[in-house]
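User: My advisor asked me to double-check a structure prediction for MASE1 domain-containing protein before group meeting. I don't want to rely on an old file, so could you generate it fresh from this sequence?
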Amino acid sequence: MDQEQSDLCNEEIARPPTIIYLSLFFLLVCLHSLGAKYFVFSYPIVPGVSSFYLIVAFMIVCALWFGMWGVFAAYFGCVIGAGILSGLPLDVSLYWSVADLLQAFIPLIAFRYFHADPVLQTWHDLMVFMIFGVILNNLAGAIWGAFTLEIGGIISSAQLLNTMGSWFIVNIIVSGCIAPFLLYFVTPWMKTQDLYQGVKPLPSCYLKKTYL
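Assistant: Sure, here is a fresh prediction for MASE1 domain-containing protein from the sequence you gave:
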């Protein structure tokens, strides 16, 4: 192992004060809330569900950039914007919004587990993103979201499959088209910022296998 690699393995990253991350968190919650409210109000399918939920792409990207701060911002943004401000009862909003949490949390965990780079420079990175950041996360969100809306009495059982299918299709299109663009072009700059708490590929001294 050369000196440069050794330094990288032993590097300690200085983080900004927690108050800075709290400020970032509240900013993201506000942005997600406003975005969720706008798209749910402007393009409704059923209460709380939009036919053009553009904000989901930003929730996924923010989770990969800011870690759990981004994940919880996605959850509370959904609670407030797509839930409470859109007329859903508070109790329903609290458990229904786990759908957006899953849509942001699943890709974050997958990128860390598989050591994928959010810049999406290799087929390995792109494959991890497509499977966990487009398909599985949005499938989990659609299933949870549709069933909890039915449990909460917001939609009928007759609307369940249509709600689930519409949710999934809309979100995979939005996530698959917008998120890769943001990750590829903006992540290199974002990684230079102190606020970045997202996924960083491990140095080769930690890797036990080679990915494509």
